[in-house]
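thoughts on my protein:
***
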Amino acid sequence: MNLDKILHIFILISFSILTGCKTIENKNELPLKQTFQVVNTELITPTLSQISGIAISNGNDKVWVHESTVNDPYIYSYNVNNGKLLDKIFVRGTSIGWEDLSTSHIDGKVMIHIGDTGNPDLKRESIQVYSFNECDIFDNFVAPTVKEYLYPHNKPRDIKGLIVHESSEQYYFFSYDERGCEIFTMPVETKNGTLKKVGELNLKNVRSVDISDNGQHLAIIADESVHIWDLKNNKSLIYNLMYNHPIFSKTSMKSDYKGVCFKEDNSFILISKAKHKEALILRNFKQEYVSMNL
């Protein structure tokens, strides 16, 4: 057996393990592989050691971030190009376990959604989402709409990933678990209700999730890996995640990934911490090329 054939079989097996799908026999069914390159890396200053959520602001030069469990309820904006702090905003509410940020768009304005979903000891009976319009921030203060959701069958999960799927007007929540990732939904406009389970991924310890503004790409990061799916077809988001392979996957044992968000041009930003170091950095990845050959 020649080397090319061995490599091809290895790739098929690797993708199958990741998504929990059967092996694809026909090479023509394999997705295009998308490659990204780092265009800039910026140190976040002043340092916030517990950042978990990140979302792009109205434009490509600013991101919103927040820290995670038991920190004060503030969100911070940073300049993507130099890593400098721009704003510190107090969000009226509590911060039990803030884990992820997501955005949606209404009449050209950015809505920010904070997922207060962390539950590592599995003792919380419900989760919250704080939603507000970016334009409603005034004098470093904002009063959000608070939504509260119960776990299905009263079975608590530790949820770290949150996105807003604009075309279906649904929240998607992604659990953090060594055994794999459960996916739940809730209509964005619903203020109180019970989450609905809609799928599972054979992907451990999902930390952060983001979907591009045009709904064509979705990124998931785990503790030491990044995965991007192409959603440009007529299939549902859950179908794509469960039955299609990522177009991009990267694993780095040297980085501790914290959050991910897309920019308008489908490039994406990772916030991560180098192993054994407290400093957090923003890395901006831009699409380099699409290869027909895996």
